[in-house]
Amino acid sequence: MKRVLIFLILALAAAMAAGQKNTTNQDMSGMPMPGHDMSSMSDHDMPKMESAAGAHAMHSMEGHHMEMGPHMKMTALRSPQPGDEEKAQRVVEAARKVAEKYMDYHTALNDGYRIFVPDVPQKQYHFTNYRYAFEAVFSFNPEHPTSLLYKKSADGYQLMGVMYTAPKRFNEDDLNQRIPLSIAQWHEHVNLCLPPSDRKNEMRGPNAKFGLAGAISTQAECEANGGKFHPIIFNWMMHVYPFEKDAAEIWSVERQAHGNGGD
């Protein structure tokens, strides 16, 4: 039985690696975007990571505040417990070690990180390693962040931080085991309504109805408007900015929301 399980895991990992090389423009429902739940994906889902809907989702997140709202779910801050600060500091030190290694973005690319929608202008680019995303479904290794966070620079990309993920099935106690909730807040993006093909223009603008910036936030209203509803579209996510000196900036939820690397 153990041999069969190992074979299945290796086969899925190989399929995921192969899928990174083939991208198509399809529906967001199967896309392994930064933080997507890798545990429920098939090998046919991997090629879908660079769709227009995914790019829109990233832009929508860049402009949102991290307040509890119809499209945002955050963990609650807990009372500090003995050992929390030390545990969080170990994560920061590991994140800093990773960040120092990947200051040159070419090194990240050579090590299997792939740029999410590189042709779409973004304030902060996610370089995602799908092997590490798969690993994060089962265990937490702070030296293997799911994504590296870069911003555009004159000579390519400048590294700002890292992103960790956890399965969307996790409750807050599970998340607390990875990074203490007295120190930082995990977040996920919820209640997404994708529009029918003839109403994609309604995903943008101050009166948007669809998307993460849209007014529609329930399945009933989404279906009434001909859309496709997704209760959760990403895994739990946590950004860490390890080069900052102040804990509030290292774990800043505001920077996570805007995706702007502090600009």
Rg is: 18 Å
Span between N and C termini? 52 Å
Secondary structure tally: strands: 8
Main pleated sheet: 5 strands, antiparallel
Biggest β-sheet: strands ordered side by side in the sheet: 2-3-4-5-8
Please give the share of residues in helix: 25-40%
What is the overall number of helices?
9
Q: Which outline best applies?
A: globular
Describe this protein with a few key phrases:
17% strand; 263 residues; alpha+beta; three-stranded antiparallel β-sheet; globular; 32% helix
Describe the structure.
The protein has 263 residues and is of the alpha+beta class. The chain has one domain (2-258). The chain has 9 helices and 8 strands. The chain has helices spanning 2-19, 52-62, 84-101, 105-110, 130-138, 172-178, 219-224, 247-250, 253-258, and strands spanning 72-74, 114-115, 125-128, 147-153, 156-166, 187-194, 228-232, 236-240. The strands form 2 sheets. The chain has a 5-stranded antiparallel beta sheet with strand order 2-3-4-5-8. Strands 1-6-7 form a 3-stranded antiparallel beta sheet. The radius of gyration is 18 Å and the shape is globular. The N and C termini lie far apart (52 Å). The model is unreliable at 1-33, 36-53 and 61-67 (pLDDT under 50).
